[in-house]
Amino acid sequence: MNDIRTLISAQLPGTQHQKIIDKILNRERLLTDEGLALYTDMPLALLGVLANYKREEINGNIVYYNKNFHLEPTNICIYSCKFCSYSRKKGEEGSWEYSTDDMLALVKDFSKKDVTEVHIVGGVHPHRDVHYYASLLKQIREVNPNLHIKAFTAAEIDFMIKKARITLSEGFALLKEAGLGSMPGGGAEIFNYELRERICPEKTGTDRWLQIHQQAHESGIPSNATMLYGHLETYAHRIEHMAKLRALQDETGGFNTFIPLKYRMKNNFLGITKETSMMEDLRN
Q: CA angle 36-190-117, nearest 5°?
């Protein structure tokens, strides 16, 4: 601890950061305005030292990873998010929807390789409900019972369960029994209500996204969390987003990891002509 304090002190540009640094070193929780200061005022080199310090404090020199492959059932989607370059409407050029046999063949092929997980995400298909996807998971387990299944964003879960006209808890019970081991964190985008109305007004909203992940955690299904950055949001919006995730983590402890996702400007309708810089990416 003394070594890290000496190292950090040598990099201090002034005393305005000392309170935040002391709280981090003393394992005290930062307030939202202090989190915002990490974006607006903290030199990147100092922020990097603090971030690595916390990483080593929690994990030592251990780095966690898995060996997975992606399975994307379809890019056909009922939504038209303005930042999305991926989705297509049914029948549109470039659209696809794999059959169950197609997907099982891919799983069988990867079963010959050194993988530990299948990551399943795709578009929100208008005709596939939770029973369809539960059947898919069961058949994947039959092909490779040792494969961890991480599948379905909150937006996918929301629609497939509503389409089946059952409750969230019933839907998660069905998916867990079928083999769902965890959820990815997609669909969170940015939690600010006004921004969501501008970039993805049709999509599963902030409160529902959090409700779905809460129910997943309570059902014994951990999940990831994400944030889409580099579009219309401000630093304050990013902190607001992470504060909501932190509040749910306090309640359930069910998030495995947080993943910042960079907005890419090509082939979508958001109208942004410049992406964030590498230096900005490092802050996330």
A: 110
